[in-house]
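Open question from group meeting: does this chain pack into something compact, or does most of it stay loose? Before anyone orders reagents, we agreed to write out a predicted structure and look at it together. Recording both the input and the output here so the notebook holds the full record.
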Amino acid sequence: MEILILSGCFLFVLIAVLCGGYWFLREPGERGIPETAPSGISLNQEDGPIRQTLERIGSILPPANDLEHPIRIKLISAGYREPDALQAFYGIKAVLGLLLSLSLLTISIRLGGSAGAALVAAIGGAGLGYLIPAHLLNSRLSRRRARLRQALPAALDLLVLGLEAGQGLDNSLMDTSKELRTVYPELSEELSLTYLEMKAGHSRADVLARLAQRTGEPEVRKLTNLLLDGDRFGTSLGPAIRNHASFTRVRRRQMAQEQARKTGVKLVFPVFFLIFPCVLLVTLGPAILRLMQGLGQMLGPTP
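Structure tokens returned:
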């Protein structure tokens, strides 16, 4: 009974920390930002007490204060643009590692383990808790990049319509962002931020370079290179973007076909190790039982 209680407490603490970290590190736009925010751009909100505590804990660790830390770039690419997101991230890692370490240590002691086993359990829990947030961040980053890649063809079509209607690149980006706000909020937010940086007086080359670096998506980088080349050489962007949209759709269709062809190879292992033994058991099982019974009768002791 004590084992069940400790296991329940451990799972409760783990789920509570993960949910709290996910809630306080989510993009402000996902936590109920008012509709007055322009095209999905996040507004700064006052941090809650839990997040402030996590930030204070994370600020103790040296990597949390590094402005050029790779994790900060990953957080920005995943949509966490708050200045203190890195401190909160490391605070979650520290708190989760401590809680898992104490939980596993308590369980090991209650089960009557030796001091060495308890120490190993504590170290393993601390390492596991320290690694879980990084894994969740990488998973969110991959999903966000996939959504950006999926939204790109539609955005290119809207961008072409704006350019061919006589608008400049800045206004076309803003209109595209407005149209994509409901369907593709991630790309809408990135385009809105790009438009606002251009309106703030930054050069177009720097703004587009930051867009590619901020998203980390190769397809977005190709688009920014195309826009930079058109701006540098003074060529018409409409036909070039239309061709790039066609290429993007062809590329996405090819990737889908590639994944479909890989499905047959991936199914070999579950078919061989899971389905094939069951088929053998159903088809050959009765015959083998009858054969063993017949052999037993034939080789049995004679009266």
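Observations to bring back to the group:
The radius of gyration is 28 Å.
The mean pLDDT is 78.
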